[in-house]
Amino acid sequence: MVVAVLQGSVRTERMGDRAAKWVVSQLQKRGHEAVVVDAAALDLPLLDKMWKEVKTDGSIDSASLRMKLAQIAELYARADGYVVVSGEYNHSIPPALTNLIDYFLEEYAFRPSAIVCYSAGPYGGVRAAMQLRALLPEVGLPTIPSLQPIPSIGSSLSAQGVALTQDLAEKSGKFFDEFDWYMRAMKAEREKGVPY
Questions:
Q1: Domain tally for the chain?
Q2: Spans of the chain below 50 pLDDT
């Protein structure tokens, strides 16, 4: 399976890259192709036009944006699922993550999403996850029932994305099992055709 891993924090001292690296390693262990879509690396402007509008806009100003978004669109066309890695900003979603998600719509259809949330404190970013539960299905990405929170991320994951706690190292398997099941089920149904 092909999985797009959306990383939304753009802060200079962010911890989300630890979580994204950990997610990629967990997916690769299961034989999946995991590709990180990093809002910080992309440096997308604040949404003015969605991908479907940008790709038909012939202006010189949008040529660079078209190139960036075309690469993402190619990945999304192959994707069987999405893992959204989100920190918690003021009990909500990082603005760059929302911006990244909003550039696309049809590309997400009939593919599951899984939420990996984190924070520096004990709650693991679950308040941001609740906001994502509202946003993701609206753009066509139904979320799997389980969440994977990572509390105290600085001491839970190394800079290389290696789990430093027994809970994270040993108890995350069910989360990824569930995500695998949803990807397989939805891929099988997409191959039969979709309602629209």
A1: 1
A2: none
